[in-house]
């Protein structure tokens, strides 16, 4: 903890507060090359012991973020990197979230090459057509929401057009999710018939690193009178073990409706090596649907509701072939989410409550988060990740012993 | 720049030199004020900074550049707001497609997640990045959403009272504007709540001439109930730059258009 305090105090000593309000001190973006970022200390601990994981704490981060942009000529080189120490993994943090070069060809086509975070689709913390890598360990441990999206080394080519925009992302080497390995949180294993926390942590074999195993994601998009239409296609792999080959196609719509926003999205997952669903080791084909509505009920108080359905295809074949039918997913997995957000005091205080509840799995996940923005430089976030359910094998309830509370203190510079 | 506020900037070349004329039609005065405050030139850019203060004197600051383009005078228009300060909102981009015949479309780009977030119409009277300004103040309130009554014509101002047609969509029951008779800029706006109290005030502090357009360069919004306020300043203002329509699309959320964001002097 002493190191944490030191790290948090350091910036206050070393960075003078520049007064951008002095009359002739308008920040000239063109003239100055900026260095920004933050220092952050984060601590989280389990609410109950997990008999399988020795460490009661779930988050011990000391983190320094450095962000910069360099714009020689018409290109932009951006850097966003984290350095620090992760006390849970007992290892140094040294991650580039962004290390990319962006430029435009022929005035029409934008290229971005390098390490980058990518997002598309209409869901709020529910992903259908967004098959870019995600970091669920960070999400469940209470790191900033930003860390849910993991970076990948990709080439992104986008052509914007009023007729139809084309967005193409090629990730030459497969980039998996950061998934549950047993190091920080135990997880359910059908083979063991209960939760496990292997040591050394689970490290599943990934698809061979060859260009033919690269991933391609496509989005076609157009906005007509405020209605956003998009069509998606993907060829790559499931992002979690067993990393089975996956292709998908889908579509989405987002538009104003009444005083709020409505969104709908669907996707078809083609598990290419298990077309008829007979291989119990591989995921079956799936259809996924999402409906959402978000509106401001009272000033600064927003409600977002989503209904999500995951339908497993060739379900009879799955039941016929799985050695453990008791752990098989339901044919139709229903999920409801609810996001409540209230902001007060010129946005200095933000209360947020996000709830996942699955009536078919009989489990749920509640994420209360409170943020206090003390100033433009200092902020404090406190929150919890609470998991509960009936059966030990369901997605959220396997994390019951991972339920945790955390606090983060951040200094922005 | 002007964009910001119900009151801000600008123009109307028409009214220059025609200042002696006295108008008595409230709708016509409002139409001219709308043009003056939001439609100077065919397009424009400005750098903006805000100090948001609460009653205890605690301050937050924001700095951003605004680009605007009109489809037609008094018609649809687009705004692009690119934040540069403070560092936790840096590179956040806000895009507005303002419509005369339907609700505006608004998007917010959050660079940390590469997320294009849509903002619902119901949020229009919600604080813009914590300021005492509302989302709606950035692009302007449609004149057709209120009824207008000319209550006084003084030497310097037309004083008008405005009542919302849909009282449930707003937090005020009426507001009064003091519109400068020569520039047609709204110089002061007082909002009255259901209790009959003036609880919110927008004031223009400074106006200068930019390329023939009277332009607001300093303004203030005060919360008269809590004592908080937001001060705004506008600098490096330019009009009629020839900003193309495709600058105001999703493309600029992910790749802010440097060519149009840089200062006019360096163009």
Question: What does the model show?
Answer:
The complex is a heterodimer of chains A (413) and B (267). Chain A has helices at 2-14, 136-141, 315-321, and strands at 35-46, 57-70, 76-86, 91-105, 109-116, 152-159, 165-171, 187-189, 194-196, 215-224, 227-237, 245-257, 260-271, 286-298, 301-312, 332-344, 349-358, 363-373, 378-389, 404-412. Chain A is mostly beta strands. Chain A has a single domain, classed as Porin, CATH 2.40.160.10. Chain A has an 18-stranded antiparallel beta barrel. The longest helix of chain B has 13 residues, at 26-38. The two termini of chain B are 19 Å apart. Chain B has one domain (2-254): Clam (outer membrane lipoprotein receptor (LolB), chain A). Residues 1-18 of chain B have low confidence and may be disordered. Helices cover 10% and strands 43% of the residues of chain B. In chain B, a hairpin with a 7-residue loop joins β3 and β4 (93-98). Chain B is mostly beta strands and 267 residues long. At the A-B interface, β1 and β14 of A face β1, β2, β6 and α3 of B.
List strands and helices in order, with pairings.
The complex is a heterodimer of chains A (413) and B (267).
Chain A lengths: L1 H13 L20 E12 L10 E14 L5 E11 L4 E15 L3 E8 L19 H6 L10 E8 L5 E7 L15 E3 L4 E3 L18 E10 L2 E11 L7 E13 L2 E12 L14 E13 L2 E12 L2 H7 L10 E13 L4 E10 L4 E11 L4 E12 L14 E9 L1
Chain B lengths: L25 H13 L4 E11 L5 E12 L6 E9 L7 E6 L6 E6 L4 E5 L15 H5 L6 E8 L3 E8 L9 E7 L5 E7 L5 E13 L2 E11 L5 E11 L10 H5 L3 H4 L6
Antiparallel strand pairs in B: 1-2, 1-13, 2-3, 3-4, 4-5, 5-6, 7-8, 8-9, 9-10, 10-11, 11-12, 12-13
